[in-house]
C-alpha cells in the first residue's frame, strides 16, 4: 500500500497548485483549521497547567498545607510539633496565631486575616519570605508592633512601608466588652500575585496571642508536607497519635475546590478542543472526496496502467496524512511559541492599555500563568495525526472503488 509510487503521487496531489482552484482552497483551509485547533489546544492546556502550578507553588507555599488545631488553643505547641515531625511526610512545622479584625489608616478601613508567626520557624514551613519586597520578615520576631501586609490589602487602605496603622480585634462572644486595639507599623509588603494578597497580614506571634481569647496559647501548628496529594491521609495519621482535643485540617478543605475546578476546567476545555481538532481533521473528508471527484480520470488511467486498489488507497492516505502532518507540525510550533510568550504578551498588553485582565479578588492569580508540558504536546499532536489518518480512510476507500470504464466514459 505504501511504496515509492504511492508516496510520490500522494505528496504531489497534496502540494499541487494546478487543477481545481476550489479543491486547492479547501485543502488549504483544512490545513489552516488544523493549525489553529492544535495551536489553540496547546496554549489552553499550558494556561491550565500554569494555574495548577501557581496553586501548588505560590498559594500552598504561603498558606498551610496541613494544620493542627485545638478548640481552646494549644498551650504547648512544641510538644505537638515534635509529635507531628515524627511522621515521615512532614518536612517542617511552625506555630501560629490566627485573628480576624480590621486595619485602619485614617478614614480607610479594611478587613484582615492576621497571622501571628515565629519568623525563624515560619520560613522553614512556608515560602513566605520569597515574596517579600524588602525581606524584613525577621523584624516580626523582635518587634511586637511590626506587620507585613499583602500588596492588595496595603493598596486598598493606601499604605506603604513605614506607615502606622491601627488594628481592631473584636472581643470573642457577645457582651459590652470593648474591642482590642493595637498599634502597628508596616515593615514589609507581601507580593504573591494571588488571592492571598487581598487580606493577609503577618505579625509577632506573642503580640497576636495577647489579642486572642486565650492569651499565651497558639491557634494551631502549620505543617509542610512532602506529598500534597496525600495530605488528607497524612493529617489523619498524625492526629491519631495526638490528644483527642487536637484535630487536623488539610489544604483540600480550604483550597481543594479551587484545585478541583482547575482540573475539571482543564478536562472539559481539553475535551472541547479535541472535538475542535476532530472537526478540523474531518474537513479532510470533504477535501479528499472533492480531490477524488476531481481526479477520477487520473485514477482511471492509473488503474488501466496496472495500479492496484491498494495503491489507490495508499495515494489518498498519503495525501491526507501529508495534510495532517503539515497542519499538526505548524500548529505545534505556533502553540509552543504562544505558550512561552503568552504571559509576557498579556502583561505587556495590560501595561499598554492600563487595564488589568485578571484580578486576584476574582481569579486565583492576578496574571496569566503558563506552563508547557511535553506530555500535553505529544498527546495533542498524536490525537491530531490519528484523527487525520482516520478521516482519510473513507475517501481513499471510495477512490479505490472507481471503475475505469465509468470514469473515462465522458472524457
UniProtKB/TrEMBL annotation:
InterPro entries xrefs: ABC3_permease_C, Lipoprotein-release_system, LolCE_TM, MacB_PCD
Keywords from the UniProt entry: Cell membrane, Lipoprotein, Membrane, Transmembrane, Transmembrane helix, Transport
Transmembrane stretches, start-end: 31-51, 268-293, 299-318, 325-349, 377-397
Keyword Secreted in record: no
Domain MacB-like periplasmic core: 29-227
All copies of domain ABC3 transporter permease C-terminal, residue ranges: 271-402
Superkingdom of source: Bacteria
Localisation: Cell membrane
Keyword Transport listed: yes
Coiled coil region boundaries: none
Primary location class: membrane
Pfam family, one: MacB_PCD
Membrane topology summary: Multi-pass membrane protein
Family membership noted in the UniProt record: Belongs to the ABC-4 integral membrane protein family. LolC/E subfamily.
Protein name per Swiss-Prot or TrEMBL: Lipoprotein-releasing ABC transporter permease subunit
Organism: Gilvimarinus japonicus
Record lineage: Bacteria, Pseudomonadati, Pseudomonadota, Gammaproteobacteria, Cellvibrionales
